[in-house]
Amino acid sequence: QADLAMYQAKGAGRNGLRFYDPQMQAAVSRRAELEADIRQAILFGQFVLFFQPQVDQTGHVIGAEALLRWNHPTRGMVSPAEFIPVAEDSGQILTLGSWILEAACAQLVAWAADPKTRALTLAVNVSSRQFRQQDFAQHILDMLDYTGANPHCLKLELTESLLADNLDDVIVKMSALRARGVGFSLDDFGTGYSSLSYLKRLPLDQLKIDQSFVRDVLTDPNDAAIVQTILALGKTLGLKVIAEGVETGEQRDFLVVNGCNSYQGYLYSRPLPADEFLRYVHSCPDRGAMP
Ligand code: C2E
Ligand code: MG
Ligand code: MG
Ligand code: MG
Fold it and tell me: Which residue numbers delimit the EAL domain (predicted)?
């Protein structure tokens, strides 16, 4: 909360931080510390990607989402929810983002060697600030060439905040990547500014229903209606729909009945280190097997 207040204060005074109270001061120094730490962490290899399975209706693994973890020497595992906003604000997300993409591509290359993992897609979160870089598309294409990863197996997760940008520019970048086979998913869908006319114009493959709607889908009629609307919208626009934050069999059943294509959440697995993810894939039913 203190971090958030700091964030807002900084927004109010663009050309310098303004200190309102000691609590905020503490947040500022914690943030500065975190910023210096991120720089070190990249150098010392403290970041690691975890992989959370994405499955179809039969429980067959069709891919994963790469989720960043920071193994901090004194603080332990620091959540991305805490340090990604700091990295975005400081601009370090650009360096970190390159590292993430290279690590993700390297993982795809490793998966390509095993028939069980060869066809898996890997979804990588991209922050708006990264995507706004003029050379974003070329950067990804260079990374694919450099690593030899299959572009058709790479999926980029964008958030709705991008829709507030120059939409033509967004479309140009997405189209350049899509021409090479890279897929796009709209993350946390339903929580941001969605204009349906914008949505129609974007070269997307998938909508990702935000976990906040999935959480209470069985008890809150509004959330149930929102989930059903997103599933219907996906169908109308010819987009796949994945649900995130699926924790119970009842939630999955609701989603299955309403035509959801794919699922991700603790019901299947938490995000796993690469070796455990591999074990998970090998323990799961093959495509088309009965659930
Ligand atoms: P996200 O992209 O929406 O990722 C989904 C978050 O939900 C992840 O949190 C995941 O661990 C969590 N989750 C998955 N299944 C469940 C479930 O069944 N129940 C609940 N309660 N939570 C579930 P995580 O890993 O802490 O990441 C938080 C956010 O940090 C991500 O939200 C994403 O916005 C950001 N992030 C993570 N990794 C990266 C990255 O490599 N790059 C960028 N730019 N952002 C990242
Ligand atoms: Mg995501
Ligand atoms: Mg999400
Ligand atoms: Mg989310």
Answer: 31-285
Residues whose CB is under 5 A from ligand 3 (ion)? Answer: 187-188, 244
Q: Report whether residue 244 contacts ligand 1, using a CB cutoff of 6 Å.
A: yes
**Global pTM value:** 0.90
Is the shortest distance between the CB of 53 and ligand 1 below 6 Å? no
| Cα of 67 from ligand 1 centre, angstroms | 6
What ipTM goes with this model?
Answer: 0.98
Residue 193 zone, left/alpha/beta (φ > 0; ψ -120 to 50; rest)? beta
Structure-token pair, residue 246: 């699926």
Cβ–Cβ < 8 Å for 187, 168: no
CA 1/CA 225 separation, integer angstroms: 31
How many angstroms separate the CA atoms of 147 and 111, rounded?
Answer: 13
Task: Name the residue of 67, 128, 156, 186 whose CB sits within 8 Å of the most ligand 1 atoms, as the mutation to test its pocket.
Answer: 67
The closest ligand to the CA of 66 turns out to be 1
Residues paired with 208 in a beta bridge:
242
